[in-house]
Write a structure and sequence with these properties.
Shape: globular
Mean pLDDT: 89
Distance between the termini: 14 Å
Largest sheet: none
Strand content: under 5%
Helix content: 40-55%
Length: 63
Amino acid sequence: MKLERTMDDRVLAGVCGGVARELGLEAKKVRWAFALLVLFAGLSLWVYFILWFVMPPDDGRSA
């Protein structure tokens, strides 16, 4: 499992798009799940920013 930020399916940094691609899910569903976890389950936005800097960008290939 190699997580990479997507450069073609992104809204902000491509973190949710990269996670979605790796898990075989739609990026929209992962974005909604992340937003709901932040709002209602106490997930910190710091998780997103840490992943932004830890996950390398992809090489531009499509899934």
